[in-house]
Design goal:
- The chain has three domains: 12-227, Rossmann fold, CATH 3.40.50.11540; 238-321, Ubiquitin-like (UB roll); 326-410, NADH-ubiquinone oxidoreductase 51kDa subunit, iron-sulphur binding domain (de novo design (two linked rop proteins), Up-down Bundle).
- 43% of the residues lie in helices and 12% in strands.
- It is built from 18 helices and nine strands.
- It has helices at residues 19-24, 29-37, 39-49, 61-69, 91-98, 100-114, 128-143, 174-181, 210-222, 224-227, 261-268, 302-307, 326-340, 346-363, 369-385, 389-393, 396-404, 406-410; strands at residues 77-82, 118-123, 159-164, 205-209, 238-245, 251-256, 278-283, 290-292, 316-321.
- Helix 6 (100-114) crosses helix 9, helix 13 runs antiparallel to helix 14 and helix 14 (346-363) packs antiparallel against helix 15.
- 50% of the residues are buried.
């Protein structure tokens, strides 16, 4: 099995393509095949491919699209979620930078299948230069007849607009994203109804991650069945990962599911900087759990990771070596979440405030045994009682540290450690 693949990333080596060059290399051929073969063809190919949502939820894309296309409404919308704000995650930025036409092609296909005439790409404010680039790409694609009225004489009308987020991490959650688009504070909605039923302006809305939409034309061109041969029986295909931290070769890589984390770190990543000892990984972004080095032979797929209490999430893999302090790492993560809380629910809002305070005391050597007890109590309360996924996953790093690195936590206080 090759360590890396180039299916979704096949145009990365030609990252300065203009739209004419993209077309010459096979761009928009997938869209043409969709117009020729129909919506059932898309659903069938995506089902064969095993593609799941690449934003973190991992829901089967074909099922999401199939349910949505059969929902009757006078208006529908699609949204490409490019509000990438998870620390350690940058694979969507790479896609926006290198293959904007591929993302646009995926958006057009999703709009056709879903029955929408208008699509938005929600790009976070920090990616302002990419907003400019994407607007230019939309303009060029429209001039070549793939956007606008009566696309390729099919009778299908579709337009794409860029929407700028304000840089709030919580707006990566679909309902918070839609709330902000409607002019309100980015805070999660009560569900049901779900976004697919009642989303933007109260209409059915299909929201997909950048990587998911970029994968669609690549899969249709490659063949759903062929793409599904990569990976494992239940985790099919490939995944873009953001590899960073104390690793020699950080970057964005497309890997087949089923590869081990050891292969990712040492074969693809080149090993640990200065050949130091690996201490832990954080998987799936800042909201992910910490994996100790003794588990790095775990396969990188949805099932194997979940079986050990970890997640694929956004595809981030942060590598930490022996010089990294667990306490300092946890404090950095919780300070981020404290800053990014939307404030809607008490467990998340107050929980993160208290965790940040306690971790500060621990890092300064002023903590007590009761502080350690309260860390676990607050973290579990947040996990089970928070309103949305942000608050529910924010304590993941802490809870995994208690499980795998309890001795380092306990060495910060005097007395009997509550974690043993």
């Amino acid at each position: 099995m090759n360590r890396t693949q180039s299916i979704i990333t096949k145009y990365f080596k030609n990252s300065d393509l203009n739209v004419g060059e993209y077309i010459a290399l096979g761009g928009f051929e997938a869209l043409k095949s969709v117009f020729k073969n129909g919506k059932d063809y898309v659903i069938s190919e995506l089902k064969e491919s095993g593609l799941r949502g690449r934003g973190g939820a991992g829901y089967p894309t074909w099922k999401k699209w199939d349910i949505g296309r059969n929902r009757a409404a006078d208006e529908k919308y699609i949204i490409c979620n490019a509000d990438e704000g998870e620390p350690g995650t940058f694979k969507d930025r790479e896609l926006l930078e290198k293959v904007p036409y591929q993302i646009i092609e995926g958006m057009i296909i999703s709009g056709y299948v879903f029955g929408a005439k208008l699509g938005f790409i929600y790009i976070r404010e920090e990616y302002a230069h990419l907003q400019i680039k994407f607007n230019e790409a939309i303009k060029m694609v429209k001039e070549h007849g793939f956007l606008g009225q009566n696309i390729l004489d099919t009778g299908f009308d579709f337009t794409i607009k860029v929407f700028s987020g304000a840089g709030a991490y919580v707006c990566g959650e679909n309902s918070s994203l839609v709330e902000s688009m409607e002019g309100r504070a980015g805070r999660p909605r009560l569900k049901p109804p779900r976004i697919g039923e009642k989303g933007y302006l109260g209409k059915p809305t299909l929201v997909n991650n950048v990587e998911t939409l970029a994968a669609v034309p690549a899969i249709l061109s490659y063949g759903g069945k062929e793409y599904g041969r990569f990976g494992t029986e239940k985790s099919k295909g490939t995944k873009l990962i953001s590899l960073c931290g104390n690793v020699k070769n950080p970057g964005t890589y497309e890997v087949p599911f089923g590869i081990t984390l050891r292969e990712i770190i040492y074969d693809i990543g080149g090993g640990i900087e200065e050949d130091k000892e690996l201490k832990f990984l954080q998987l799936g972004g800042a909201s992910g759990a910490l994996m100790p080095k003794q588990l790095i032979d775990t396969k990188y797929d949805y099932e194997d990771l979940a079986g050990k209490g970890f997640q694929v999430g956004s595809g981030a893999i942060v590598v930490a070596d022996e010089t990294n302090s667990i306490i300092d790492f946890l404090k950095t993560v919780q300070d981020f979440f404290f800053h990014e809380s939307c404030g809607k629910c008490t467990p998340c809002r107050e929980g993160k405030r208290q965790l940040s305070k306690i971790l500060t005391r621990i890092s300064e050597g002023n903590a007590t045994v009761d502080d350690l007890k309260n860390v676990e109590k607050i973290a579990k309360t947040m996990k089970y009682a928070s309103f949305c996924g942000l608050g529910q996953t924010a304590p993941s790093a802490i809870l995994s540290a208690i499980k795998y690195f309890s001795s380092e936590l306990c060495n910060t206080v005097e007395g009997i450690c509550p974690y043993y």
